[in-house]
Design goal:
Structural class: alpha+beta
Distance between the termini: 63 Å
Number of helices: 2
Largest sheet: 5 strands, antiparallel
């Protein structure tokens, strides 16, 4: 009986820890963009945290959406990157949650 109670307490502790940690990890930048200033930008129904570094931009979608398709999300992320950087975006790669775009700023650095 004591072993059963001990396991229940341990599993509850793990569950509570995961509940506290998982939401924090959802909008964390990738290692290349860590430490860069973040801008929160909304495009249509998608909310992105955009970080810039050199000629690259990263857009992390931070809102929940039911079954988002990559096509519309990619276009919204591209627009968010353009708004954050002030530069056109050449191309965008990634998935529905994290997208990276190559900026076409001319000088190689984002305008903003």
């Amino acid at each position: 009986m004591c072993d059963l109670i001990r396991r229940a307490v341990q599993s509850r502790s793990i569950f509570m820890f995961l509940l506290a940690v998982l939401p924090v990890a959802c909008d964390t930048s990738s290692p290349h963009f860590r430490g860069q200033a973040v801008q929160r930008i909304t495009v249509e129904s998608s909310v992105f945290e955009v970080r810039l570094r050199g000629s690259l931009a990263e857009a992390v979608r931070v809102n929940s959406q039911y079954a988002p398709r990559l096509g519309p999300i990619r276009k919204r992320a591209q627009r968010a990157m353009e708004l954050a950087s002030g530069c056109p975006v050449r191309d965008v790669l990634g998935d529905q949650a994290v997208l990276v775009g190559r900026l076409n700023c001319g000088s190689g650095e984002a305008a903003k």
